Structures are given as structure tokens and as C-alpha cells.
Amino acid sequence: MLDALRRTLTAGPPDPLLGSAKRPFVRKLPYVVALILIAALLPSSARLMVRDYRLDTGLALVLAVGQAGPLLLAVRRPLPAWGISFAAGFLGAWFTRQMSLPPDNPWPWSAPVTIELVILMLALGLRERPRVLVLVWLLMTAGTVMFQTGVHPPGNGSSAVVLVLGGLLMAMGVALRDRARARRALAEQETISEAERAQRTLLEERARIARELHDVVAHHMSVITVQADSAPYRIAGLPPQASEEFGAIAATARESLGEMRRLLGVLRSDGRGSSAAERAPQPGLDRIQQLVEATVRSGLPVELSLAAEALAADLPQAVDLSAYRIVQEALANVVRHAPGALTRVSVTTDGSGLTILVVNQPADRPHAPLETSGTGHGLVGMRERVRLVGGTLDTGPLPDGGFRVAARLPLGEDAGAGSGTDGSASTPPTEKDSPAA
């Protein structure tokens, strides 16, 4: 404990009490309280020592400054402040030890000294470690016992007030400090957990997209392999050099396909192997009608407008899959956050891009939402899919209380470029983006 006391006394100035508060007034409050206490206790302490304890005026003033002045130092360094105040109170009791005091005069600690010491002990409880507090209380007890039994006849109870009340205040300070520390740790952990959860959701969605993208790319690589292998038999009179070139193309395609399958094995590695759902054909625009019908059966009124040109268009597979997933996630958000709300789904194309619009109106009657707070994790998948094909995504609440999801997916050469024209596509959505209609 002595070593802990030495390190505390020699350490640099710590942050003041309430120094981490956000409001400037709260940070200045300990200084204001300390100055008020000094202004009230210093003159009363000096007057009492002159009038009731018969000390010289100069000595009384010096002792009063030593007893009350450290209250300001206690804002940053409560342990040295307590040491100075305790020493000044000890000297005051020593100088009055042989005087015949009236029975109603507190001794060895006068009333102002008692107030100062218990306040300093509360400040100690808020800042110092328990073993330092135990040492302080033992020193207080030793000094009090010395005066009460060896120097002066027993006092009238001021020492018991300091020891009992001061000990309780130190314990209360420790409890308040531990509670504040636990709350800060909990808030930090919640912030870290939310960030980790958002990052995990983003990575899981990217892995899912990668698995689905494998099925799209693997098909094309297989077609390239078959075409390159069969070219010498389908094309008559092919020069030997061209046949060798086609063979090299087929070998490269097979090697690339093998690398993709090994990469997919890593992505799908969860200790259980690939599920049948992962090996199933990926959905596209032709499955949106079934998706809407299933949603309607669940109790959500949905109106679908699916342009025939969009169904007939030769869409890149990544765009086709992304369009289905965006509509699927948008409808799932409506079911979770606004059950019973009329929802309109529109899918159109102008030849250069595919436009997807999902708008839900406020529910015509109150419904209990399945989720009361939106985490925005569903929008992470939408943004990643839009970013994958180089499109744009616009989401947000409507003035009347509904919610809108609008996506533009380019076709042709720009599809799948992953240019990320929507600047926020690769970042997790903020809270205001969460569907909460």
C-alpha cells in the first residue's frame, strides 16, 4: 500500500473530476463547487480557531488555508489534497491539545475540518484505488486514536463522525466510480458489437454474392471449355496451329474453373459442406411473379408491374439475379417493419438499364411490426449487389410515412463493372436508411 501511495503522489496530474463530460459547464462544475466550499469554510474555520480554540490570528489563518485550500487541488489530485488538509487539521488539534475547551467544542476536529475531511474522502473514493483508501482510513484512525487516548481527554464525537461518515463516503465513491466505469465499458462494447455486426453482415453478404457469382461465371467458363474443345471437330480444315490454340484455351478455361471451385469451397466451408440450396439454380426476373404471390399469401397486399420487355430482354445473369434479390429484400423489409402496407413493385427496362422500384404506403390500419427498430442490414445486401453490377441505389422514407427503394442496374458492357457509382454503395447504411414505415 505504501508503494501505491508513493506512485500516486509522484504521478502526473490526472484528468479532473468530470473531465470527460461533454458539456463545458459540467466539466467546470467541480471547480465551482470547490471555490464555493473554500469561500464558506476558510473564514469560518479561522474565526472558530481564534474565538473558540484561542489560537493566534496569524496561526489560525495559516491553518485555515491549509485545511480548506486543498479542496481546489482535490479536483485533480485528491490524495495530496487530503494529505495537506489532514496535516493542517492535525496541527490544529496539536496546538489546542493543552487548552481547556468548553464541552460543546468539537475536538480533535473542528466542524469546518470535519466537513473538509469527509468531502476529501468522498473525492478520494471517486479517484483512488481501494488499497489506497484503506491506508487513508487507517491513518485517520491512528491519528484520532492518538489524540483521543494519549494527548487529550476523549472528545465529543467529531472523530467518530469523520471515521464513520468518511468511510461510508469513500465506499460510496468507489461504488459510483465502478458503476460509471461499467456503463462506459458497456457503451464501448455495444458500439464495438454493432460495428462488428455490421461488418460481419457485410462480409456474409459478399460471400453469398461470391457463391452466386460462381454459378454464373462457371456456366460461361464451361461453355468456353466445350466450344474450345469441339472447335477442331466443328470447323473443317482448321490449321494445326489454330487447333493447338483452341486446346490451350480449353486447358486455361478448365484450370480457371478449377481455381474458382477451390475458392468456392473456402467460401462455403462451414463444417457442414454445401447445402442443396446452394447448388440450386439461381432465381431471376422470371421468379419475381412467384415471389410476389408468396408475399401476398403471407398477408401483404402487393401490386406487381413487370414489363414484358424486361422479361424478354437478354439480361446478364448478375443483373438478373441482383434484380430478384433486391425485390426479395425490399418485400421482406416491408413485412418486418410495415405489415399490411400496400406495396407496389415495378420492374422496367429502356434497353440500357433495368429500373426496379418498390414503394410501400402507410398501412390503412394499425399493425404491430415484427421489428421495432431497423438495423439496415438488409440494405447492405442491396448496396453490395448494386455495386457489383455498377448501378445506383436510392432508398429513403416518403413524406407520407411510406418507404421507397429504387435501383438502376445497367445492361450491356457496363453491367458487372462494379464501378460503384452510388458513392455509399460499399458502406453500411445509416439508421435513417432503415425501413421503418
Radius of gyration: 39 Å
> Which structural class do the helices and strands define?
alpha+beta
Distance between the termini: 60 Å
Number of domains: 3
Keywords: ATP-binding, Kinase, Membrane, Nucleotide-binding, Phosphoprotein, Transferase, Transmembrane, Transmembrane helix, Two-component regulatory system
Enzyme class: transferase
InterPro entries: HATPase_C_sf, HATPase_dom, Sensor_HK_TwoCompSys, Sig_transdc_His_kin_sub3_dim/P
Protein name: histidine kinase
What does this structure look like?
The protein is of the alpha+beta class and 437 residues long. The protein has three domains: 2-156, no CATH class; 203-270; 285-363 and 372-433, Histidine kinase-like ATPase, C-terminal domain (Heat Shock Protein 90, 2-Layer Sandwich). Helix content is 61%, strand content 8%. The chain contains 14 helices and five strands. It has helices spanning 2-10, 24-51, 57-68, 70-73, 78-95, 111-127, 130-151, 158-234, 240-267, 276-279, 288-297, 308-312, 317-337, 377-389, and strands spanning 302-306, 343-349, 353-360, 392-397, 403-410. The chain has a five-stranded mixed β-sheet. A hairpin with a 5-residue loop joins strand 4 and strand 5 (403-410). The two termini are 60 Å apart. The relative contact order is 0.06. Mean pLDDT is 78; it is low at 271-277 and 419-437.
